[in-house]
Automatic annotation (TrEMBL):
This is Transporter YycB. It is found in: Cell membrane. PANTHER family: 2-NITROIMIDAZOLE TRANSPORTER (PTHR23523:SF2), PTHR23523. InterPro entries: MFS, MFS_Cyanate_Porter, MFS_dom, MFS_trans_sf. GO terms for cellular component: plasma membrane.
Amino acid sequence: MGINQAANQLEQTKIVIKPKVGLLIIGIILLGANLRAPLTSVGPLVTSIRDNLGISNTLSGSLTTLPLLSFALLSPFAPRIARRFGMELTLFLSLILLTIGIGVRSVGGVPTLFIGTILIGLAIAIGNVLLPSLIKHNFARNIGLMTGTYAVSMNLCGAIGSGISIPLASSSGLGWAGALGCWGILSLITVFLWMPQLRRPSKSGKDVQTAQKEKKINLWRSGLAWQITFFMGLQSFIFYTVITWMPEILEQKGLNADEAGWMLSLMQLAVIPITFLVPILAGRLQNQRLLVVPPVVFLIAGIFGILYGSTLFIPVCMILIGIGVGTIFSLSMMFFSLRTQSTHEATELSGMAQSFGYLLAAIGPVLFGLLHDITHSWTVPLLMLAAISALIFIVGMRAGNNEYVTTQ
């Protein structure tokens, strides 16, 4: 089935919304909203936090690295926790942990800042792993639509988090602690709206109980599982490296700090429509190899445009990079469902890929900065990102094949 035919079928993608299903959809949207904003809201406030608490640049920089390491450490264990307690209850407990973490982080002291940050990272790690498999189980005929819906919620709230942090901290007089604490309101609302999922008969709860009796699968020996893992991980490497370093790169190309910040926002906004459309298209295609090519081309074009182009082309380059990482991220989320035969397998694959993926994400900004320190130039680090984009193409063509990770 071609892309044009798939696009023509988008209008036919419908969910018959019953009250219980409607509450589940609202819950999934709100869960998605909580997966980025508590983290993206930190970046613009790092300078204020550092100056207010008198901490070093290294410590303040770890505020963005600690959650990624938390993702990497907990993701492999999230499937086991879900099998023990059920998926809905596990997500509910993660929301409570997230709310506690946001509150602790907002107390205002150095120890509570880092303890809260770690708790937030652990809570979000569970949501990252379990949401794709929750969607696979409850919306098997609409995986693409629901994946796109929660991805839009996640990225939109992430962009909002970046944009309103400074106004909340300065204009409203809340300070950095109050600005970060505001996201506890969203997580608390989500806690209450997720409660109906604990009362309804849980098919996913039965599924995870059944999974305990199933033969244990070893995805670490599956070549396809590793291709998907690298596809996810290398995308995360590029995304978090760009988020960390691109403002400084653009400032050295002649933009002021505000303009560089807006270019980063432009990149994140470009992701939003892509993260909705790509999962729907991917779900309609027999294999997804065709969808791997454009984002890699866009990534390489955007990176080379930043490296060798004039400032006039920077907005276009940032949009290209945004479309590239957004498409690859959406395909990664879809592969967790499309390349597995059960909710149990989807959860295991998601845990494996996100654990390794976020470990790469934590390494990326550090390695990029190290190459810059060694070469005193942005050329070699940016060429490294272009080379990684080419690697994404190689593993993506394999991951895009229409087969299952457990049939190898």
